[in-house]
Write a structure and sequence with these properties.
The protein is an all-alpha fold and about 120 residues long. It contains three helices and no strands. The chain is rod-shaped, with a radius of gyration of 45 Å. The model has no long low-confidence stretch (mean pLDDT about 85).
Length: about 120
Amino acid sequence: MAPQIKNAGIMTILLALFTTMVIGVVSWIGINAAHVPELEQELKYEVAQLNTNMERLTKTAEETNAALTAYTKFHAANLTRITETLIDHKYRIVAMEHDCNEMHIDVKECAKYRKVNK
């Protein structure tokens, strides 16, 4: 075999070994650099804080929803009472106007008459 081919083969083998060794060293540095204890600790702390804040927000949202539900029910009951009262008064006014028209009296005078006679 020619010495030039031998040298080229040896250089190729050495280059392959050197390339593999460089890739291994760079990978090892990358893996070890990714595990910085301070950064991992900081990340764990931040994740714990985020979880705590999410729990607080969830609890606050549940309390707010409960308060809104109670508020809505309370005002719905009030609105129902007001509506019933308005309907009752409307029927009374209609009945009074009907009585006043039958007696041929002015509505204002009739209202005074009805207050006196009750």
